[in-house]
Write a structure and sequence with these properties.
6-stranded mixed beta sheet; single chain; 246 residues
Length: 246
């Protein structure tokens, strides 16, 4: 009985030795990584002009040819006479952000809040705001009153219909203009172009402007040297899709 048991033990030991001697099969997977550029196509103006309009008189703006547009901008104390218009002409939806910096000229001073009715200095609360989802008359072949690729009269209609009760620091589509740059991201989202025609749609275009409250009758009268330069630095990023939990 003992002899038989020793034989079994020897066989098991030999089998284990043979198993250890067989090499494991190895196979490599190589991943080749490289950066893929995301093409972002956006048209925005490089320059614009504006006037301080304390009494909110009707203001004429011109088209790209320097000819006046028949309709006037009304009820605004700050009028951007070369409207700030832009559009996404890529396929990817984009989030629009901006950094805004103001440089007062002459005796004009920027306020941090709406001036009171008895203020006699040349001050004004000025803010930048942006909007999308309005009919700006985009066309591959502009109408007889061209403004970039937009219809001038429709742009003026959009400006006149754009009512803002007041500046709110919490509003995502408004930035206070000050002597230090202020920034916000994801102010609006622009859709991509129509995949069939390759042209921007209403929600892939935006309009922006300066707005605010200006002292009407300061102690020292307004003069041409009083004004404000504003620099807008745009940011455009692919829009992050909204996910919902089932």
């Amino acid at each position: 009985m003992k002899k038989y048991s020793k034989k079994i033990a020897l066989i098991l030991a030999l089998s284990l030795t043979l198993a250890l001697a067989i090499p494991a099969l190895a196979q490599d997977t190589v991943i080749n990584g490289s950066y893929q550029a995301t093409e972002i196509k956006v048209s925005v103006p490089t320059n614009a002009t504006a006037i301080i309009n304390p009494y909110a008189l009707p203001v004429t703006i011109n088209d790209d040819n320097g000819a006046p547009i028949s309709k006037e901008v009304e009820n605004s104390q700050i009028v951007v006479t070369q409207p700030i218009l832009g559009y996404n002409w890529g396929k990817i939806p984009l989030s629009v952000g901006a950094s805004v910096l103001g440089t007062p000229k002459g005796d004009f001073r920027l306020a941090l809040e709406k001036p009171s009715s008895d203020t006699t200095t040349k001050t004004g609360l000025v803010f930048f705001e942006i909007k999308t989802g309005v009919d700006l008359g985009y066309a591959t072949t502009p109408d007889t009153v061209p403004l970039g690729a937009f219809a001038g009269e429709k742009v003026v209609d959009a400006l006149n219909a754009w009512t803002t009760p007041a500046y709110k620091s919490s509003a995502k589509d408004q930035i206070l203009v000050g002597t230090r740059a202020a920034s916000k991201s994801e102010m609006v989202t622009l859709k991509g172009v129509d995949t069939t025609t390759g042209e921007p749609v209403q929600d892939s275009c935006f309009i922006a402007r300066l707005n605010g409250t200006i002292v009407k009758a300061p102690k020292e009268a307004w003069v041409a040297a009083d004004g404000l330069d504003v620099t807008i630095t745009w940011t455009f990023e692919p829009s992050t899709p909204t996910t919902t939990t089932p």
